[in-house]
Each structure stands twice: as structure tokens, then as C-alpha cells.
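Weekly sync, protein design subgroup
Attendees: M.S., D.O., the rotation student, P.L. (late)

Item 1: inverse folding check
M.S. brought a backbone from last month's batch and wanted to see whether the design step gives back something sensible before we order anything. D.O. pointed out we never logged the input encoding, so this time it goes straight into the notes. C-alpha cells as presented (422 positions):
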């Protein structure tokens, strides 16, 4: 097969960045008068999620430090729904892979899958919350605000979702996702969040927003009464700062790695243009004919949810899958489609060639090919010659170098995306 000639380009953005995490967080906590919210000796639960959030260990560590300064007794709870195979041990392993441990943060981590019912949603379903959180004197919700991977609305992925799904553990996560089939995410997540705010002692939230380079761009402390309005505002900003593929039509998208630390669906659906969730419409762009995903991140601990979004994959990725963890997460999220295994081929070369062979009457040399590391890091990417005309003249794209034809080593492995182009 004659492969397309590839070029290395970068997306160029002028974006905000928080240079001093601790100082910024302290100022935010002072802005909500944290000392007036904390009673001496109070046991305070802090949510710790499973995503690869920039500087999350520093944020949690400094938050614990400030709470101790105010004579509180902070502890962390894994707040990640059904992740980690739906087990307390698995969720601890995920936090450890994110550099979040009792030693690194300076507070105990109470990992349990036990939940209590604290109310019912207006749809008639029980609202379940981590027992340790429900019994604490106060709860602090920490999460990144970003576009969700399965729906679009004023409230997507952030503090409300962390309460509704993350704090619900495996059982609560299932209850929430069941409701989304009939009532849709856009209604369910805010509703569950409302019930929790009314029945659990939520002290405040710490919302984080990242820029296109996966750096912390915003840290915001928010009182419970302002969760909804502030999260809507921050989501608008997160969408403005979010990286997207710079082309609307792509024949073949090659993804070096997918994983839970990259996106809740392994590959961010906002990037690849595929959602695959009942009742939710597919994105208008980008339109990608074939998606090839080559590997699974170690931080995923075998959870390959989202692999079903691809058309082709490698046997290497399939071998790295934990079928149990993948199926548990897929079913809990009411998304068995995302756990389906696409056509898996022995090598990167075979998978990429199969994709180029199934894009219709397009010569491989003329194919519109985009090669990315993962859907979180897309500031730097490789593109084929057919896309060069769209690169030229754009201020937001920078051409770095010609790489030559798409190439594989003797074992059929594709070289990874090179960076950084800034």
C-alpha cells in the first residue's frame, strides 16, 4: 500500500494558566470565608475522582492542609461511580495511579462501596450516596468542569455530576444511568445533584477548568447555593478553552492510546464526533469515516470502555483489556455499545491499512488522515498531505515539519505522535 505523506502541525492558542496552584486555591478558599464554614474537629469528606485531572494531587493536598489549619479532620473518598471494577480496592488503585495516596495527600482515604439512600429523585428513583460522605460533618466536592461525553446541556461534567454519579459509587451510578435512558442526562444530573444538596452537608465545591494544553486554567471555590449558576458559567469557558480537531471531515483518525485517565469514555466523544448513547444525537462534526485506536493506557487498569467507538483496534489493546472492569463500567453507564470490541488486527500496520481500505473510493495517498496521541492531548498532531491546504493561512495552526510517508517499524508498530509545537 502507498501511504499518505504526513506532516507535524500544532494548534496554537493563547490561553489562561494557573501558575501557582496553592496560592490561587488559598485565595479562592478565603473568598468563600472557609474559616466560617468549618467547625473545630469536624470530619470533612473530600471527593477524589478517577480522571487524569491536571494538578489534582496538589489541589487535594493543599485543600487538606487548609482544612487542618482550621482544626478540621479531613479524609478522602473515592468518588468514581463504578470505576476500578466496582470495588473498594480497585478504586484505591486508581487513586494511587493518579499520585493520590494517604501519604501524598496527608489524609486518610476511606474507600468503600457501601451507600445509603438519602432521598428520591422526582423520577421516583432512590438517590444513593457514599456512606462515609453521608455520615461526615461536611463534604467538599472537587472536580473538573468540562463538556460531557454523552450529552450537551447547560450542566454537563462537573460538580453536579461528581455528586450524582461519583459519590453514588457502583449502586448509585447504576440508578442515575437508568434514569438517563428515559429522562436524559440533561434532566437527570441536575435533579440528582439537587437532592444531594438538600440532604447531604455539602460545604462547598472546588471547580477546575483546563486549557487546550491540559493545564489548570481556572480554580474556583463555589458555595452550594451557587453550584448551578457557576457551573454553567464555567462550562461555557471550558468549551471555549477546549481543544478540538481542526478539520471537519476526516477519512481516518488514528489514536495512539485511549483510557479512563483520558476520558470517561476512553476517547472523548466531543473530539471524535461519536457518542453512541440512546436518546442523544450525534455531533454534527467532525465527520470521521474510520477510527483506529492502537493502545490502552496503563492508568486505565484494563478498563477499555469506549473501545466500541472505534472501527479497528489492535490485538495488543484487546490483550490489555480487563473484560470484567470494562463490562462493569459499560453496563453501569447503560452503554454496552461502548464495551464492544471492534475488528482487532495483529499490528498497528494491519489496523491502519484496514481503515484506509474501507473509506470508499479514496486512494490511500490522498486520504485525509489525522494521527493523535489521545483525545486529551491534541494540541500537537500529525496530518496527511490532503489536509495541508486547510492548514495554510490559518493563524491557529502551525506547520512544524514534513515527516514523510506514514511508516511502521519491522514489527508493524506505528511511531507515536511527536510534540510539542507551540
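Designed sequence read out in the meeting:
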Amino acid at each position: 500500500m502507498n501511504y499518505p505523506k504526513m506532516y507535524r502541525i500544532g494548534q496554537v492558542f493563547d490561553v489562561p494558566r494557573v501558575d501557582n496552584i496553592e496560592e490561587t486555591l488559598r485565595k479562592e478558599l478565603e473568598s468563600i470565608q472557609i474559616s466560617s464554614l468549618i467547625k473545630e474537629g469536624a470530619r470533612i469528606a473530600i471527593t477524589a475522582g478517577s480522571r487524569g485531572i491536571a494538578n489534582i494531587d496538589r489541589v487535594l493536598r493543599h485543600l487538606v492542609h487548609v482544612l487542618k489549619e482550621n482544626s478540621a479532620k479531613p479524609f478522602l473518598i473515592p468518588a468514581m461511580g463504578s470505576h476500578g471494577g466496582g470495588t473498594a480496592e480497585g478504586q484505591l488503585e486508581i487513586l494511587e495511579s493518579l499520585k493520590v495516596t494517604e501519604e501524598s495527600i496527608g489524609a486518610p482515604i476511606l474507600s468503600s462501596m457501601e451507600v445509603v439512600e438519602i432521598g428520591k429523585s422526582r423520577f421516583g428513583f432512590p438517590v444513593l450516596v457514599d456512606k462515609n460522605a453521608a455520615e461526615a460533618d461536611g463534604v467538599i466536592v472537587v472536580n473538573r468542569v468540562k463538556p460531557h461525553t454523552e450529552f450537551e446541556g447547560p450542566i454537563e461534567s462537573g460538580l453536579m455530576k461528581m455528586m450524582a454519579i461519583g459519590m453514588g459509587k457502583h449502586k448509585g451510578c447504576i440508578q442515575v444511568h437508568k434514569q438517563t435512558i428515559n429522562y436524559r442526562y440533561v434532566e437527570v444530573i441536575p435533579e440528582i445533584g439537587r437532592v444531594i444538596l438538600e440532604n447531604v452537608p455539602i460545604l462547598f465545591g472546588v471547580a477546575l477548568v483546563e486549557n487546550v494544553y491540559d493545564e489548570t486554567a481556572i480554580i474556583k471555590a463555589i458555595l452550594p447555593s451557587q453550584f448551578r449558576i457557576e457551573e454553567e458559567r464555567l462550562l461555557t469557558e471550558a468549551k471555549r478553552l477546549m481543544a478540538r480537531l481542526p478539520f471537519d471531515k476526516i477519512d481516518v483518525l488514528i489514536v495512539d492510546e485511549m483510557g479512563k485517565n483520558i476520558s470517561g469514555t476512553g476517547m472523548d466523544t466531543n473530539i471524535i464526533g461519536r457518542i453512541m448513547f440512546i436518546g442523544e444525537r450525534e455531533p454534527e462534526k467532525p465527520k470521521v469515516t474510520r477510527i483506529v485506536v492502537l493502545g490502552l493506557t496503563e492508568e486505565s487498569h484494563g478498563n477499555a470502555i469506549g473501545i466500541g467507538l472505534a472501527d479497528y483496534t489492535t490485538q495488543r489493546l484487546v490483550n490489555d483489556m480487563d473484560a470484567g472492569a470494562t463490562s462493569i463500567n459499560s453496563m453501569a453507564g447503560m452503554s454496552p455499545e461502548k464495551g464492544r470490541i471492534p475488528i482487532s488486527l495483529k499490528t498497528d500496520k494491519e489496523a491502519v491499512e484496514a481503515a484506509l481500505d474501507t473509506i470508499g473510493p479514496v486512494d490511500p495517498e490522498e486520504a485525509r488522515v489525522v494521527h493523535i496521541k489521545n483525545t486529551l492531548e491534541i494540541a500537537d498532531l500529525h496530518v496527511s498531505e490532503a489536509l495541508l491546504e486547510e492548514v495554510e493561512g490559518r493563524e491557529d495552526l502551525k506547520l512544524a515539519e514534513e515527516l514523510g510517508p506514514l511508516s511502521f517499524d519491522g514489527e508493524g508498530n506505528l511511531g507515536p505522535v511527536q510534540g510539542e509545537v507551540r
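Discussion: The radius of gyration is 22 Å. Residues 169-183 form the longest helix (15 residues).
Action: P.L. to compare against the previous round before Friday.
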